[in-house]
Structure formats: structure tokens, C-alpha cells
Design brief:
Length: 339
């Protein structure tokens, strides 16, 4: 494991931003990260761990040490008649984990197909899509303390999962290296096709009794039709979270905007599609210089080739401000902004 200097991170972030890491190393084993902590950690005042680089906006060159996580692999820990426990190492691409499970005919993460990034980042975000979230199948993760190099197990309860949220965005932020994640999947059909887009695709294909692969294929088709491939157009997927508001707030807005869509939440609040709010403010497909909002999905900010990270961030702030002025709702970034 070598520590390099002044390394371009353009190929390590899906926005394709050409910023430099002051120091950089790639790790491929648990021993690498333990050695790094014990021998080198004191030399760096800041660090950034990169998996797929799909949920980060790098606004400038990164001071300190950038750690590229290349620890990969998938293991079956145990199984019984109804369930299987799968352990994946944190540098493994999330979609590879999904395909592994779908190909085995196991249920639980097919709705999360084609979400970019690595499985190590998945618990930080509590990734979710089409009515499913990571926490639905999560068992535990193994993390390494970045001060002591000791190992700690986090259960589902200890992760404190919320909507695109976890303990790793709060009191545990920057304190641990997530080494592996264990999921519990079902061998029995357990489908979730409540979202209309999935039902529509299945109906078009005349699939009446879908299995995990059918649903995965449908989700992939939907995502590819709406979202730009980062290899073709730099982006980090959904830039903002869908905001949650009270019923009182919703009723206030609905008086002015009767067509506002919403999802009813168990706690009585309403979740509003951020894409709809942004589109109502005229941002869908709008380009300013080298950045803008994607033409097919207003929630996705893009780099047309030569944008700087700070340009994208300033654009995001303008979008945020216009939504707040029009609806009284403050959008919260889903992307990790490094300034």
C-alpha cells in the first residue's frame, strides 16, 4: 500500500470533477486499513473515504488523505429454508450485490437495482428506491475505528436508520471505516411493486407473477430511461432528498398548488417529490454554463464536461433558494458536499 501525492480524482467521482487529492492511497484488505491507522494516521489532519464516488460533490482539491476502498467480495454466511444471510465487503459495487442475489432467486433488494456506489456507503445513506430501503434487509455491519483500529459491530438499531440517514451522518461521522455489511434475504417470493412505474413495465411485458429478476429488470429499465449514465454525463443521481412536511404545511401549500403530489407517511406527515418542486420552479432541463438540471429528471444536477464543483454547488443553492421562496420548503442535499 503506497501513499501517493497530488493524484487526480476525476475518475474516482461520478460528477467527473478534476480535483486533486493532496495524498491518496488504495486499500484492498482489512490489514491495509489497520496498518494505515496504526502507522500513518497521525500524519494527516483530514481524511476522505471514497467507494464509488457516486454521492459526493468535490468543490475543491482535497486536503489530507483520500482513501480509495477496493476491498471486494461476497460471502454466504448461512441459510435456512426461508432465508439467506449474505456478507459483502465494503468496496463491492452495490449493483453487483443486487445481481448476485437476484440471480440466486433471493428477494429483498431487487427494487434497489442500479443504485450507484458501493455497499459500504449504502448504510450511511440508508439507500432506498421504489418503496424499499436498505434497512428492510439489513442485519449488521462491521466497522473499524479510525483512531484505535479496533473492530466494532453495528446492529440495525445501532445504525439509527432514517430517511437517507444514519448514525454515520451524525455522531459517528468520519469516525469509522465500514468494512463489511450483512443482509438477510428471503428465499420465498416477497415482492414489492406498489410503485406504479414498476407495475406499468411489468404489464407491458405481460408479467403477471413477477420474480426478483423481473422486478430488477423493470427497475433497471425505468432508471436507465430517466437517469443519465455518469459515464456519459457527470452526475451523482438525486441531489436533494424528498422533503417531509406536516399535514398542516401540506394543506397550506395545496391551497395555492392543488396539484401538488404527496406520499402519506406512517407518522402522519407527507413526503413531497423534490423533483416536482424543482420542476415547478422552472429548473428542469435548464443549463447554466457547464452545469444544470437534467432534461428528463429535474432532481439530477449534471456536469456537462467542464464544470467546477463549486459551480455545481452554487447552482444547487439557487435551486434550493427558488423552491424555498415558492413553496416555503427547504430542500436538503442528499449528496455529500466537500468544500
Amino acid at each position: 500500500m503506497d501513499i501517493l501525492e497530488q493524484i487526480s480524482l476525476k475518475s474516482y467521482n461520478t460528477f467527473g470533477l478534476d480535483v486533486k487529492a493532496q495524498h491518496f492511497c488504495a486499500i484492498t484488505s482489512k490489514e491495509d486499513i489497520e496498518q494505515l491507522i496504526k502507522k500513518e494516521w497521525k500524519n494527516f489532519h483530514r481524511h476522505l473515504i471514497l467507494g464509488g464516488g457516486s454521492n459526493v460533490l468535490l468543490c475543491k482539491d482535497v486536503e489530507g488523505l483520500v482513501i480509495k476502498n477496493n476491498i471486494v467480495g461476497i460471502e454466504i454466511l448461512k441459510e435456512d429454508e426461508n432465508n439467506v444471510w449474505v456478507k459483502s465487503y465494503s468496496g463491492t459495487t452495490w449493483h453487483d450485490v443486487v445481481l448476485f442475489c437476484v440471480d440466486k432467486g433471493w428477494y429483498g433488494i431487487e427494487n434497489l437495482s442500479l443504485i450507484p456506489g458501493t455497499i459500504g456507503a449504502a448504510p450511511i445513506q440508508n439507500i432506498g428506491a421504489y418503496g424499499a430501503e436498505l434497512k428492510d434487509v439489513f442485519v449488521e455491519l462491521e466497522a473499524i475505528d479510525l483512531e484505535t483500529a479496533s473492530t466494532k459491530i453495528f446492529t440495525k438499531e445501532q445504525c439509527q436508520f432514517g430517511y437517507r440517514d444514519s448514525i454515520f451522518k451524525h455522531e459517528a461521522k468520519g469516525k469509522y471505516f465500514i468494512f463489511s455489511v450483512t443482509l438477510k434475504l428471503s428465499k420465498q417470493p416477497n415482492i414489492n411493486i406498489a410503485y406504479g412505474d414498476i407495475q406499468k413495465v411489468l404489464e407491458e411485458k405481460n408479467i403477471q407473477s413477477p420474480n426478483a429478476k423481473n422486478i430488477s429488470d423493470a427497475v433497471i429499465q425505468i432508471r436507465e430511461s430517466k437517469l443519465p449514465n455518469p459515464k456519459d454525463l457527470g452526475n451523482a443521481g438525486s441531489f436533494f432528498k424528498n422533503p417531509e412536511i406536516t399535514t398542516t404545511e401540506f394543506n397550506r401549500i395545496q391551497q395555492v398548488f392543488p396539484q401538488i403530489p404527496k406520499y402519506d407517511l406512517a407518522n402522519g406527515n407527507k413526503k413531497i417529490p423534490a423533483a416536482w418542486l424543482i420542476e415547478q420552479c422552472g429548473w428542469k432541463g435548464k443549463r447554466i454554463g457547464e452545469t444544470g438540471n437534467h432534461a428528463k429528471q429535474a432532481l439530477v444536477l449534471v456536469n456537462y464536461g467542464n464544470a467546477k464543483g463549486n459551480e455545481i454547488w452554487q447552482h444547487a443553492l439557487h435551486v434550493q433558494q427558488s423552491v424555498q421562496e415558492k413553496f416555503g420548503i427547504l430542500l436538503e442535499p442528499e449528496v455529500n458536499v466537500i468544500q
